[in-house]
Design a protein that fits this description.
Blueprint (H helix, E strand, L loop, with lengths): L6 H20 L4 H8 L3 H8 L7 H11 L3 H4 L2
Helix pairs in contact: 2-3
Length: 76
């Protein structure tokens, strides 16, 4: 099924992905090492960081915990 995201939705996903990427890099993780650390697939994390995935709430929690920050900080 093709997603029907608006341009605004896509921009939001891209901004979130860029934030995750910046925080991951600041924490010193490679994408692969971070994905292994939090129990997600590397290709999934790549898609999140590129803004291609509408990420599930539980995965947001995994990312925040892996970065040792609150979920709220991911959206700052």
């Amino acid at each position: 099924m093709k997603n029907t995201y608006t341009k605004k939705d896509k921009l939001y996903l891209q901004k979130f992905g860029a934030r995750v990427r910046a925080l991951r890099k600041a924490a010193g993780y490679s994408q692969e090492d971070f994905a292994l650390e939090i129990g997600l697939d590397r290709t999934y994390m790549g898609a999140v960081e590129r803004g291609e995935r509408n990420i599930a709430l539980l995965n947001i929690r995994k990312i925040a915990q892996g970065l040792r920050i609150s979920e709220k900080e991911l959206f700052s």
